[in-house]
What does this fold into?
Amino acid sequence: MNEKRIEYDFLGSLEVPTNSYWGIHTQRAINNFRISGIKVNAGLIRSLALTKKACCLANLETGHLTSEKGKVIITACDEIVAGNLSNQFPIDALQGGAGTSTNMNINEVIANRAIELLIGKKGDYSVIHPLEDVNLHQSTNDVYPSALKVAAIYLLRDLSKAIAGLQGAFQEKEKEFAAIVKLGRTELQEAVPITLGAEFSAFAEAFARDRWRTFKCEERLRVVNLGGTAVGTGLAAPRDYIFLVINKLREVTGLGLSRGENVLGETTNADSFVEVSGILKAHAVNLIKISNDLRLMNLLGEIRLPQLQAGSSIMPGKVNPVLVEAAIQTGIKVIANDAIITDTASRGTLQINEFLPLLAHALLESLDLLINVSGMLIEHVRGIVANKEKCEEYFNASPMIITALLPIIGYEKATKFITEFSVGSEKNMRRFLEGKLGKEMIDKFLSPYQLTALGYSDQR
It folds into this structure.
């Protein structure tokens, strides 16, 4: 049976499922926003519950909330943080109202669970009221962006760890492939000789920068506006609560948060999210570039990527580089989300950003995607196998390896050698050069050490 209860607000009455922990405000949002079918990010829900717990603790300590109410509100918040009641947050991620619907949703779920803990009946808000008790001294406009920053910081820390693992995997391959000579390539043409290890070291270095940037940009999110209520002035909240609530948020989150010096400014502007998104975009760019390089090296046969699944429904035995292709698509999605975050942040008007729900969805989605794909790539990279023979085949056949000898023979003589090689019968450039200059000299100047040394020492 789909039993209903009747709840009321200033717009009138509405039926709400009897067993639901949400109430009339959530139900209106469910009815109004049938758009994407994508629910609000679970990390944001957990961070909102932490934020509500901090507000409750501040109201308890300052005497604005009774211990009986405070105890059950805190218990309800803890249950949500633990992942319970996750099916009670059904609102579409794409919603109007700057996050008000999501704030109302969590207020109602906390209130009705708290009522239940007091052996009351869901919807009897004379016991615990969603707005007068759970949302006491708060506004969506300070709770929602503060919770978003908390959620993003947690995910940034997870991402930094995932990138560190990815960096480490490439560094392992750097050492493993250190002695394998190969051709570098520029403009998709043969270029000067390098080593496969050096090539992987460049990939590792890019992810090292991503790791550091991701770790450091947490600082951009530590300043929050909780206690500022509607526009950042703290209107309708007592001063003792305002000065205490940030301390409580630090305690419940374990994060080094602080109240903004200009809380109105923190409420009005969303530029810090844009800055962080730019860091995520940088990592996405590196993922795309390096994943495509791995695809090309796999195509050339210089490396073999781990084989994961059949690549064709018609061509037996075909295997595609599916994981690096997935990483490229993930990077493209993150870049698209960065454009969304940029646009939504710029469209805030006067003392509020009405489009924070879309910004929040895009930011947290990017973080989730990058954590997942970076983590998946770690073992994939560790499974890469070098084809030393193919690398050496390309290397020995290419006229470009003569570039390593320029300090000894000069540009003009090198050009002459290349001309002779191109019209001669010898198709192996290394053997050709050994015949001209001697094997000992060629082995020295085409050694892995010599090719990756930073410049050369003047041996005149």
